[in-house]
């Protein structure tokens, strides 16, 4: 018992693992869907964190280059699982909203919190302007590429027509090619924002995990995410109806938080420790991986599943993506941050949140 | 008589005070509305300037911190009065256009004139890139926040529905919170673009005004702006019809100029004196105060008046705001200006002016 | 025969002159339009290059200032000729698409190729951040000015109404005024991105051309472009129908390439030789000349021809222009480039190309 307490003291997030049995019980005994939703959502948080920790542990054995690749692919495992299950359920709007939400969550919420808390602790914080500018350029280019098809789709045909499907596949192909090129660049030439080497807080470091143990934990926590995501997604539609919130709000604000809280915490912690370079790099890198890897992979997988997902976003998502990337680029080019800027970024995130909250489902 | 001439030589703007009696006469004898409009518009210019001068004089006694607060709140008094009277008359389109116009007037017209005249006088002008970048970041973040609701409103409900009203109130609340946070930041931490310490040209300095005299002049000139604004707004609708110009053109181009010419002159004069840092700071700071203070205050006051104003702009205003802020941010990040850039900014302002001039009322 | 081979070895582009007789033959004997289109398109490439070379040769005699003016006006001769002939044929959509295409061709295709090939050869390439920022500011301001009328047009009246025509003429007037002001700035004050001094690759240098010979070659190649453009434009409509590609695709992707390949090659070659400053300057300068000189000149000439062209772009063109300029500005402000960024720019160009390819004519 004592050892359990000291374990949870070291790994406070893992206390949320207790939500797993509650989620299973609520599912079996058909509790009200809102409880299933809440318990399974909470349970995903520590499981996603465990996937990350076991990936780090494996990366520590494979060396930094392969480790970077492992991080770049497995780092988004939880998010991929949730969205694939949502695609199977036909919740395509939710999936697209959560792609948007993951990107603006990184660029507005995490960057804003990092700059606010980091600035309150450390005053004005500087970071390497050249490196952050490089990252910002990639970010802007990739987000522009991501939103182009949405402008063309309306004129090319209805959602689901072969023209729009072809456009989405073409863009997904270009994106994934750019992702591979980016990995090659990172491996052969220099660091790039596409694959960041693993970052560990000492409190989460599990270097003592042997590879076999790391692989077991990775497999178990992945299985856990799959089951919890089934429960979560299975209850979404009833939650939308009973709470009166829109599918967009769940997709843009809640779903992305669930899968990424652990990573977000690392980014904010780095800012508080005055390592603003690393904090920004994590946020930008996460956004790029969503756009260049997760989104196109989902397009291809959705085809196999038979519920084709297109990269056609609605105009609220376009506004959120466009506004988020412009703000993040400005911040990165500035080379300095303070808590007032952080508060302003959070203000934009809150205003977007109010908008998505008031938006009716199907809006 | 001689002393009057030497007074007007020192304070050339004050000669426009002669328009006050003309405005009163034209109102009493029911001259054609265009004359009432012209005289009262001209009369507002020196009165707005006197509000500014008496605020400066008070600020000189209160010290820089309280003085900065005085400036930040009273500096927009003339504009607030005109727009509140317009709200009472139900001219909500005019009010929203004048919010837009104040922002692009600062970012395109004043910045453009400053860079053009400053550049012609001083050649290429440099300014502190770090400080102007900081300002630009705040500017971009705030303008993005300001335009978000406009994109959501159409899907949330008709203008005037509770959803849109709630969205506007929510945004106004976030804005005013950010404004208060910005004032705290300026008072406690470091200079920020939200509240600039008072700037005086020697020719306008009235440090000899005692506080009692400053308060009297402040009260009288405020009263004068109230009366002149009543005449001005009372004649607007007939002017729109008889001249054939749109309400948008008056709101975007003319109304903002009337209330801000004195401040604009200070900014341009600073550029000609090769103090480009201060010139830019005034223009950016004015824009931020309109977005973070004037606009939300108008939303709240309009509710009390019973003519609720929403922060939902039309797409021309969105284009003007978006284009203006992107250009201003680029200029600020550049760290250098020349008269060609100034001419280009004025070109964009003229093109926007042509567009608003040709736009039919209700367009 | 040997001298001819050694000539073509020195001037590989000129081998394409052989397409001229093929184009004439295909026109006379009424071959299928696709052949007329292909041969005349190929023939324009070396002719446009010869116009450039003879302009350079003349510029070498007139000195750098007049030479800069010659380059700024004659540098776009081929493009002007093609688009004027297209206007006479009433292909206004094609003309507007090719204005867009010339700008994004420079900002995405040429910059992307330059950064990709230059980066593969030279690693990370730096360039003068101050100069490229200055250029980027002008670019952003000018492109914002160019896209403003498109937002107003819908509300001002139908395409072809006097209001929209007036708006286009007003904007064209402001643009051309800004162009003249830019030339004055370049002549009197300092280098600016509006008129770049001529750039020659040694392999293309023809300094031995006497002025009389240069003028003869200029006249002959201009005449050649006129004839080839007649053939080219004459076959466009049938090619659109028979190939099933949209007029937009031809206008945005193909037509701009034909008239500018020689200049594009210079820009890419400069990047490979690690002169990134010059490479970027050529690309930005070309884009500015299209917006400030070619587009407004076409508006005025189209009025004389009686087929009035407006500066009202559709939303795909607006997206391409907006996205292209934001990306180019980011790159310019960055001060560094690498081949990953180059690949990303090409990715955006390809995605835009897919979009325009799938767009139905009239879309």
Automatic annotation (TrEMBL), chains A, B, C:
It is a multi-pass membrane protein. GO terms for molecular function: calcium:proton antiporter activity. It comes from the Bacteria. Keywords: Antiport, Calcium, Calcium transport, Ion transport, Membrane, Transmembrane, Transmembrane helix, Transport. The keyword Cytoplasm does not apply. Pfam families: Na_Ca_ex. The chain crosses the membrane at residues 12-29, 35-54, 66-87, 99-120, 132-152, 164-185, 214-233, 239-261, 282-306, 312-333, 340-359. Residues 34-186, 215-352 form the Sodium/calcium exchanger membrane region domain. It is found in: Endomembrane system. InterPro entries: CaH_exchang, CAX-like, NaCa_Exmemb, NCX_ion-bd_dom_sf. GO terms for cellular component: endomembrane system; membrane. One of its GO terms (biological process) is intracellular calcium ion homeostasis. Ca(+)/H(+) antiporter that extrudes calcium in exchange for external protons. Belongs to the Ca(2+):cation antiporter (CaCA) (TC 2.A.19) family. NCBIfam families: cax. This is Ca(2+)/H(+) antiporter.
